[in-house]
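Hi R.,

Here are the chain sequences for the assembly we discussed:
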Amino acid sequence: MAFNIHTSHRLLFLIPAVSYLVLVAVCAVIPAMLEQQREAEVEAPFEDALLERGRRLYRDFNCVACHTQQIRGDEALASVIEGERLIPVLKADARFGREVASRREEYAHQQPPFMGTQRTGPDLSSVGRRLPEAQWHYWHLYTPQSVSPDSLMPPHRFLFTTTQPSDDVAADYEKVLNIEGLGLPGKELWATPDARALVEYLLSLNREFIEAEGLSR
Amino acid sequence: MKIPVGIPVFVAAAGTDPKFAKMVSRWLVSAGVWLLLASAVGLLEAFRLVDPEILADHAFLTFGRLRPVHTMTMLFGWASMALVGLMFYVVAKSAWLPMNNPLTRLELISSNAALWLVNIGVGVGAIALCTGDLSGGGEYRRYPWYCMAPIFAAIGIVGVVFYRIIARRRVGAVYISCWFAMAATFWVAVVVFMGYQTFWKTGLAWVIVDGFYIHNAVGMWFTPLAVGLTYYALPKLLNKPIYSYALGVLGFFTHLVFYTVIGTHHYIHTPLPLALQTTAVIFSVAMIVPVWASTGNFLMTMKGERLAISHSYSLPFIFVGVLGYGFASLQGSFESLRSVQETLHFTHYTVGHAHFAMYVFVTFLIWGCMYGLVPRMTGREPPILLVTLHFWLALAGIAVYVVGLCIGGQVQGESWVAGEPFMESVRKTLPHMVWRSVGGALMLVSHVFFFLALWRMRPGAFTMAFTPAKGG
Ligand code: HEM
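And here is the predicted structure of the full complex:
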């Protein structure tokens, strides 16, 4: 009677609870610990206050809702070149200017990594290389549709201030140039420190650790 | 315990402890309020994926911040509160407790406290997200820790109360609904702990925990509670036993083993260990076993009951919900395959699937159980017209939503594989974004009718007019 799971609520609690904990250990805790050990082998990037601030803004404006930072790879075509395991990029991800799929080193020490699960907008893991102009990013953040017609990206105008040409502006604001297309006649547009930090972070996204040869499709 | 179908609900409800009825009802009405709020936010987000200029000038209303307000409020405010509220009733009933005095004073007080803890967590959470504190980090755990802490405490309270009710049951065997209730509260406590621990918060270690969290939050909390409720409500409303109790037990254990290990299917084709990815895909397909053990069980129970279903205002919801469970899960198994992921991962298809599962399965089952069970507790039935409008608008809305997005996701994915410019995929899916908004608007209207109906079922003077009777 005591060992009948149908009539013992203690057993009925303990068996699913303990089995769950075991499974969680096997499928999440232990793999996470192993990854953490591997991560320790990668050197931590040096700290940069502006970049760190930009990264936090990327998190807090939740750019991850629409942008991934992962280039998926085709495991079946993996090859080993000089001891490095390289995985070519999946067809659907080939447009983002990278030849090798994302590698674990790219995410080391990132808290949290912005791999993302949805791609309403393009992948940004190498956007710093594709779009290296800070000014372009200012226009784009201010009104995405001004540089990319029909874009569904929301404008982030609250990251900017407009002034009359005669006004004084704090030194850590950066002037946005060539703003004819933004509909601000007779005004000047300034990127706030937040906008500068965010763009600094975007420009730093240039992740291709290995320039592999002969892997392009 | 059995109440023949023909007996009016106010007789079934007679003698129910009004304090208990009020406590349950508070959970349900809170859930209803969150549903309305989160639906409005969802609809706003849907509109903005057609026209991004809508309400675009305020940082606290920006798309990226309101999206988690929608998902978190739906998951923790709506679905969790509704499921837990109903589960209080189902656990007490299937433990055969006397309904004139099912909970001790302390249990009642703590259950009410848990209710407010969740409400505070969800309310403060919405404000925190809008003001830009997304330090929780991952999908479905964007709340900062100080919003999740009260919710975690509430889960603890609810788990203890469920356990105590089941421990003092007046019947030998523990009914299968209670299995799911007891296990799910423990599982979700582990899931939330894993989501908010600080040992693995960087790099791929974080990603592994993230995959685990995303999927286990859905699979080890909403699914077992919704399925558990149905194991009680369906036989009760049809006034017949469940088709096969053994199938239910099989479903329970396979669910436990298979569902736990499939989180990595959110990160296929990534640098995560291949063994984890492969395990996730294999068991995602194996999920067909627990899903169809329960779905088949429910369908067999409903077999030959066409008349009863078409004459009931609650059973149609349950019927749709059961089909939703079976087919949304089949869709999920299909989506986990590597070849399918190549095209469909990252697309709107995923959002279609998320709503198929959380809406057609979980939300419809919640509604069915509310309409079926709440009148048996409060003695008040909802106006049929409201329920009818609710049913058809919600069904039409979600059909447009899901079909629209699944086709849209396919179009989007094919455009990527074909190597067209990215903006081409955005332009091609614009019509699908419009369809989503149309479906969403129908859904929101149906939620208003639902809320009115729920309000009409709240315990009132009517319930309390009955003097407490003896026994359950
Ligand atoms: C009025 C009805 C609803 C509308 C208009 C709506 C709209 C939306 C929108 C626009 C998104 C964001 C999609 C994107 O970023 O592309 C979303 C995501 C989501 N919604 Fe809803 N929604 C509704 C009801 C619900 C309900 C009732 C639930 C759950 C009970 C729910 C759960 C979710 C989840 C889990 C996601 C995240 C999907 C993912 O990341 O794949 N929604 N919804």
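Chain B has one domain: 9-465. Chain B has 18 helices and no strands.

Let me know if anything looks off.

Best,
T.
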